[in-house]
Amino acid sequence: MATLLHIDSSLNGDNSASRAVTALYREVWESEHPDGKVVYRDLAAEPVPHVDALAYYAGYVAPQDRTPEQREAYALNEELISELENADAILIGAPMYNYSIPSTLKAWLDRVIAVGRTSMTANPTAAGKPVTVVTSRGGSYAPGTPQEGNDFVEPYLRHVLGNGLGLDVDFIVPELTLAPSNPAMAELIPLFEKSRDLAQEQARSKAAALAARLTA
């Protein structure tokens, strides 16, 4: 029985482009793998607190040597890290906010990046696990567009998830999501619809393929 760790971080609820795609991905995953398990975290509804000094430095102390205060401070880190380590696959909704990721997602990352355990070690404990990142954005940052080079979501997540945690990273990128609601972008609606449809198709195919691979 495979486990999918599903994380959403958009603050837009039912109006979220990234949530629409992650929900479709999860729906296909569950239909293809009805005996599977999903661990879900909504970082907008229940934000992970930003790591403080006590929790941060507790990570550099051997578990048996931690003080009671350090153990208490590190308990959430341990819970989140264990969810990552116990998952067979990870799905992350990561909309672009001000050219980067939501601070709630950064807070989660700061707690699961554990030096000597999940990162900066010869054998990261989550290495090799497939992670699908749905990163939506209101405009386009593709080559040749005015915003080319201003996407700090995909490069950052590719580095921290791939190089840092050793995960097998894949992206789905629905873009131009503001076109239907911004009159100045009305002429871009056909491109938005094309991007939306492609993202949905990728979610379906990638979820089905991964479920089949993990249950083979």
Automatic annotation (TrEMBL):
Q: Any keyword NAD?
A: yes
Per the UniProt entry, the Enzyme Commission number(s) are 1.6.5.-, 1.7.1.17
- Residues covered by the Flavodoxin-like fold domain: 3-162
Reading the lineage from the top rank, the first entry is: Bacteria
Pfam family of this protein, just one? Flavodoxin_2
User: Entry's SUPFAM superfamilies?
Assistant: Flavoproteins (SSF52218)
Q: According to the record, how does the cofactor bind?
A: Binds 1 FMN per subunit.
This protein's assembly is summarised as: Homodimer.
Family statement drawn from the similarity comment of this UniProt entry? Belongs to the azoreductase type 1 family.
Q: What is this protein called?
A: FMN dependent NADH:quinone oxidoreductase
Say which species the protein is native to.
Streptomyces durbertensis
Q: Which gene encodes it?
A: azoR
